[in-house]
Amino acid sequence: MDLTDHVVIVTGSTSGIGEAIARRLAGAGARVVVNSARSVEAGEALAAELGDATYVQGDIADPETARRLVATAEERWGRLDGLVNNAGVTIDVPQPDIESVTVEHWNRVLSVNVTGTFLVSQAALPLLRQAPDGWIVNISSIAGTRQTGSSLPYAVSKAAVDHLTSILAKHCGGEVRVNAVAPGLVDTPWTADWGDLKEGVKAIAPLHRVATPEDVADACMALISSRYVTGQSLLVDGGLSLVI
Ligand SMILES: NC(=O)c1ccc[n+]([C@@H]2O[C@H](COP(=O)([O-])OP(=O)(O)OC[C@H]3O[C@@H](n4cnc5c(N)ncnc54)[C@H](OP(=O)(O)O)[C@@H]3O)[C@@H](O)[C@H]2O)c1
Q1: Which of 55, 190, 234 to mutate to test the pocket of ligand 1 (most atoms within 8 A of CB)?
Q2: How do the domains of the chain map onto residue ranges?
Q3: Which is nearest to 127 in space by CA: 170, 203, 72?
Q4: Residue range 144-154, pLDDT digits in tens
């Protein structure tokens, strides 16, 4: 896939899935806006490594971050072709522990995963509509469609991301295709100490392994290049959803 001259934003791209997608897009020739809320050094290092790329520090839950991400692309390159809404957070409260979930937990998880994803999309749409083949890929989760995932607010937020994906796709029509990749369990810093869960997935998933960030990047690139697909959430879970 040749993305020479294309400009893309990848939120939460200093680590894990977002970093793999940013590397893949840059490898295809795209100019990348790298983003994270906290890891500034890693973001600047990745942007330097990717060549024609830049780093924007900012929490996507802050509306100002959405504005700065898009303004950076426009000021530097004068266009925006794609957006990967990858940044996400959870809380350290297992799903069955309903009593421990606080309003602060809900507000934080939804403000990043749902509001942040919407705000960056909203800010990006005017430029994406001008692109010859504009697209958005949201990173949701198997937790959005199954009664599983790292926490209850997280799972609900990812269901909202899937619904946001289909509604944006409906209203953006042929101007901007909007799809989602919904990973199962992926080996990233986020899941570094989830050893037992990974063994469980290896045991029961039809493909008998957890995903790598590159597996998710593969699916992202497939959706970007599939010009007759919009409004879809693609499960990338090694078949796990077939058995849980
Ligand atoms: N790993 C899995 O098994 C899995 C499965 C399904 C879905 N997902 C989804 O995939 C996405 C990436 O997960 P990952 O496993 O790759 O996580 P990760 O390795 O922890 O990376 C998360 C990235 O997002 C950034 N980030 C976090 N909060 C942010 C915010 N508010 N604003 C901007 N950037 C922010 C982080 O940088 P800073 O912390 O420095 O800001 C980091 O660059 C998430 O949306 C997650 O829900 C992951």
Answers
A1: 190
A2: 7-234
A3: 72
A4: 999 999 999 99
